Amino acid sequence: MxxxxxxxxxxxxxxxxxxxxTCPGDALSLRAVEIREKAAHQKSMPALMESAGGCxxxxxxxxxxxxxxxxxxxxxxxxxxxxxxxxxxxxxxxxVKFLKSADAFPEKTRSPARDLGKRITICQAVSMVRxxxxxxxxxxxxxxxxxxxxxxxxxxxxxxxxxxxxxxxAVGFHPEAAPAADEAENMCTxxxxxYPAILMAPLSKGLFEPDTVAFYGNPAQIMRLAQAAVHAxxxxxxxxxxxxxxxxEYLIAPLQTAAxxxxxxxxxxxxxxxxxxxxxxxxxxxxxxxxxxxxxxxxGKKVGARYPVPSYLNYQPEFPPMYGEMADRLKLF
Length: 333
Description:
Layout: E1 19-23, H1 38-51, E2 59-64, E3 70-75, H2 76-87, E4 94-99, H3 112-116, H4 122-132, E5 136-138, H5 146-151, H6 160-170, H7 177-185, E6 197-202, E7 212-217, H8 219-233, H9 247-257, E8 261-263, H10 267-272, E9 280-285, H11 289-296, H12 321-330
Parallel strand pairs: 1-2
Antiparallel strand pairs: 2-3, 4-6, 4-7, 5-6, 7-9, 8-9
């Protein structure tokens, strides 16, 4: 068997067992791509491996918490490619895992401090993944963005909201401490040392079950994904916008709320991670990935909804009067 280009030939990955992901709730609520019992799953593994390019690292297995049954197989490469194709995305969908230790980083994970010799921002790491296709692991030693380090629990600050609010005032984002602290308290943040390591990779690599999946696109592309997300979860999508430290919105918020989120990239995203003026982010909890994938194939199809959005051209245009006068002279109509 040839080594897999996605797992980068990690020892044992091409022969090892499929990753197992636990899916909460009743299996019937998953809208799974492939529903099968355990015996049927075991029989189908060779076919699944063949469809995944011969490497089990691309195939994850969803398991019901209630019954312990294998209820769905997940080919992350297939899902990533399908979403990119349907929405014409320029960058890779981003998979994110919040970890208790950097020891869980896969082999060949890039550490900015170790491999690049510098500290970076979290949003820089996001761009390295979605634009370069790298697998990036972050710990406190890799980071230099003070507000993000506070918000993601890397600072040791006793009062995370108050400390962020103080910083917002110091740099001129608020004139007074009270409203600054109020804004910070309403942001999605992590407790100190809740997750000492963050792992990011292109979704297509299928290296882990993601806590959060982020999609970057222009407003029309994100509109299309929003339609699929609403179709999948049955609720409209919310967002919280402040123009700063927006990495909390597209990375932490889906994890904490278990709901999709639309984020407007902030100032740091545009300065440090080269996020473009026309880009928005739709992020989802990892548990919503399969339903979103399935919904994207059907939502709005009866009215031709897709991206690029087709223009309506079946009409007769009108012109200023002088065009009509010339048409009369030439007897055109």
